[in-house]
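P.,

For your records, the input lines for the assembly:
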Amino acid sequence: MPEQQQRSMIEIKNVTRSYGAFKALDDASLTIREGEFFSLLGPSGCGKTTLLRMIAGFDNPTSGSISVGGQPMEGIPANRRPTNMVFQSYAIFPHLNVEQNVAYGLKRLKLQGGEEKRRVEEALAQVSLTGLGKRLATELSGGQRQRVALARALVMRPKVLLLDEPLSALDKKLREQMQVELRRLQQAVGITFVLVTHDQYEALAMSDRIAVMFGGRIAQVASPKEIYQRPVTRQVADFLGGMNFVKAQIVEESGASLVVDTLGFGRIKTDKPKAFVRNGGGATLGIRPERLRVLWDNATAKFEVAGKVVERHYFGEITHLIVEIPGLEKPLSVTETNDFGADDIPVGTSIRLAYDPEALVAMAD
Amino acid sequence: MMAVRRFLSGGWLATYAFLYVVFLYLPVIFLPIFSVNTAATPKFPLTGFTLHWYEDLPRTPALLDAAWNSMIVGVSAAVLSTVLGILAARSITRYRYPGRSTIHGLIMAPLVLPEVIVAISMLLVMLQLGLSLSLFTVVLGHVLVCIPYSMTVLTSGFEGFDRSLEEASADLGESAFGTFRRVTLPMVAPAIISSLLVCFTISLDEFIIAFFLTGTEATLPIYIWGQLRFAAKLPGVLALGTLLLVASFLLMTVAEILRRRAARRTQNEGGLYA
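Structure tokens returned:
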């Protein structure tokens, strides 16, 4: 995303949505920037869909405020908001054909001189459905229905396009193809996209920024790379793939950094996460399995740990090794690509692992 | 179990099914047969073919009056019960609230109440209310018996209606009324028409309630009942009966086709998740 597009598009301020005693969303604050591809990521029931539906106007905050394009949304119904949505079920009107579906929202605008037809065709071309305008929804495949839903929303030229788990009904191959296409489409039209998903790979692959949510609260908002490499809590780290957790003792705590002692990795200096709350003298460090490399033969590294392979799992392009390290209460999991023969390391072998101390991050429990 | 299956598969099942259908439809078959017989008494052997009894029908003023009355009652009852049915069916298929299934059960109950009891009770209520018996009171009675049928047809048409369709319409800028007109109505129209046809047919054929609640104006079934006292009028009644039978059959067939189309239409979307 170009750096100049940093103006905010959606402002969510202290939004809470309660159903009786249950809080579907609990004091969430968030800024979504103009022109970015933003994802709300979390397990089911984390409040991500509730938040999306409140932006769309299908639900209202119990307290707090939402504004879109600088305009407060309070009291504005869904049909007068500058947002359009792609529904999880696609919600294609079954009694209308593809063209009529796409033109549905334009009918009210009463466009002059073939403008409507032109915009419908442009939208169909954007989603590669040119020539299928006369088909009925019932004659379309799942992937095509999804494209119709996209075209129907894009043709309205919304300020924000909201996508509610749009890929969850597609099979794996089509889903991966659509991820690439959606990202490309978003960059082509330049509209702010807000995607709801429970699939971490989808969020990582498509987004400029991600908000990870748990239990109605936003745990972290950052770029995919930062979310993955520097998760601020154990929960975030766990949700975004494998993570080795290492117990540590705090030696020194300053404003932005921590110095800790670990049994396996020795003394480490690391950035202190914002959400970090000191709980006695202990801390938790984490390192991703692919950030540990097997040292072959007599190779050495500046930072290494020695251990013994206790399990080996083969996954085709990678092998998963479980390595016991003296002093660590849990064995480390290590992913190695299979180009050097990690898939042939016998269980019980003593090996050494190289690591970069930068890859060890401190996080809140 | 095996023995039963062998017994049934040895052609017995087919025989049983045949007898079953004969039992159901044999009496009905006699109606058109005797309605084209030249003899005035319904007896075998048949004496000859004639359409004379049919030709006489439009020349009977009392019959035409009765037919007109039935038309008025049928259309009014169909429209009223369908409107009420739409409201109830929408509430039952769309919302979840305490007492929902109880209410549904109570609305369906007239289906199994003894009709003669319902008729007597309604007569008492009408008289208590000070209403004089007329076609209007018949319409009220028919609405009561039609609503369960209307509900059955409409709930099957409304069920599975994906709520996100209405949300999508609102999302695309359409007002609540516009959404109803452009999305909800076209989707459920076949079910509504089906309900109208079913209710009209039921009202057209209904005798007991009409018998109790009508004043001096007869509906078709009551006219037929009156004619049965005169042996000479029997062939005419048979001819009229045949026409009613054919009309009912056609209306119900169209209604069922529409109901299925409506159900398929709303359930299409639901099928997507599978």
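Two observations worth noting. Chain A has two domains: 8-230, 235-363. The CA atoms of residues 35 and 68 of chain A lie 13 Å apart.

Regards
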